[in-house]
Amino acid sequence: MSTYEHALVTGGAGFIGHHLVHSLLGRGLSVTVLDDLSVGMRANVPAGATFIEGDVRDPGTVAQALAGVDCVFHLAAIVSIRASVDGFLRDADVNLMGTLNLLEALRGRGVRKAVLASSMAVYADSPRPVPVPESYLTAPISPYGVAKLAAEQYWLLIGSSFGVGPTVLRFFNTYGPGQTPTPYVGVITIFVERLLAGKSPVVYGDGEQRRDFVHVDDIVAATVLALEHETPGAVFNVGSGRPTSVNEIATALIRELTPGMKPENAAAPPGEMRNAIADISLIREALGYEPSRPAVDFADVIAYMRDEPQ
Ligand code: NAD
Q1: Nearest CA to 143 among 80, 99, 97?
Q2: Tens-place pLDDT, residues 229-253
Q3: Over the stretch 284-309, which tens digit does the pLDDT of each residue have?
Q4: 136 annotated active-site
């Protein structure tokens, strides 16, 4: 595939990370995973990968994890807009300072590709459900978005001066099997978990907020495409390009799992965007990315969660 041989995946025991690790191993790369298991699970890490349990904020651990590595995928983060509103110090400590600690460790190490997992949360809220390109205003409305935006800018600036091929991928709402169901994770995982337990899904606000739900397989495909192409300094949206409301998700899942059930409503939490839809023209054109699913498809999430003890 590429000229790369050994990847470090931070956060590789987490939801997106472990799917990426499987894909990289399948392409013949050696993979080291660094994860503190605060959310991720040891069992997610395939036997073929080297696992280091530790914190991205710890310089010694990061140096150990980088041994022999020529490409880096930085996914370790506290992934919660809501938690960042009260816990902005903790959020910035991991999501910004952890990123800077990793960047510092890349100095002079021979890493040639460094991909940062960023987020749609860097954008200003969009009043209408229209796709936003990478050039759209970056004015985050959550501390999580502020930290991700600052991390992006350091990644591109310092990463360029270190010659590590810095690349930023702005992931939109990622769904798929294998997401740890904490109270903060994706709405699809939370709704499926509640419906399988016979509880109503809780819709925040009026439910007409629209999101770009993108399957984790597509997120992984885009990330691998970023490895296969020369992308130094690039910033790409990764989504489906398609708006779907939270009400549409609730209705479809209820129809599938517990027909007749009514969703509950709760006040919209601060920091959540009204609309967040990706314009994916740039990544389509530059990397040949194409989302694989014509509509949001829950089948593998439901199958996974039925099998897992809740
Ligand atoms: P996740 O919580 O499943 O994965 C994050 C992993 O990082 C976890 O395994 C956790 O244990 C680990 N981690 C947290 N703090 C750490 C630390 N200090 N040191 C080492 N490891 C640490 O979340 P995910 O959905 O897989 O997200 C992966 C990346 O994608 C994150 O950077 C996130 O911000 C980004 N992202 C995700 C989504 C989404 O919808 N899931 C959307 C946009 C961006």
Answers
A1: 80
A2: 999 999 999 999 999 999 999 999 9
A3: 999 999 999 988 999 999 999 998 64
A4: no
State the Cα–Cα distance between residues 40 and 37, nearest whole angstrom. 5
Question: Do 10 and 102 contact (CB within 8 A), yes or no?
Answer: yes
Task: List ligand 1's pocket residues with C-beta within 6 A.
Answer: 11, 13-17, 34-40, 55-57, 75-79, 94, 98, 117, 119, 171, 173-174, 180, 186
**What does pTM read for this prediction?**
0.97
What's the sign of the alpha-carbon dihedral 17, 166, 141, 93?
Answer: positive
Mutate to test the pocket of ligand 1, among 19, 39, 81, 240 (most ligand atoms within 8 A of CB): 39
| Span 264-280, average pLDDT | 93
Residue 236 — φ and ψ, nearest 5°?
-130, 135
pLDDT digits (tens, 9 = 90+) for 180-191: 888 778 899 999
189-205 pLDDT, tens per residue?
999 999 999 999 999 99
Phi, psi of 138 (to 5 degrees): -100, 105
| Cα 63 from Cα 268, distance rounded (Å) | 42
Q: Of 86, 109, 135, 133, nearest to 271 (Cα)?
A: 86
Number of H helices and E strands in the chain, helices first, is 11, 15
Q: Atom 18 of ligand 1 has which residue's CA nearest to it? A: 55
pLDDT at 74: 98
Catalytic site residue from 4, 123, 136, 144: 144
CB atoms within 10 A of CB 68: 12
Distance between CA atoms of residues 4 and 116, nearest Å = 17
258 CA to centre of ligand 1 in angstroms: 30
CA 47 to chain centre: 23
Please report how the helices 246-257 and 187-196 are oriented relative to each other, as an axis angle in degrees rounded to 10: 30
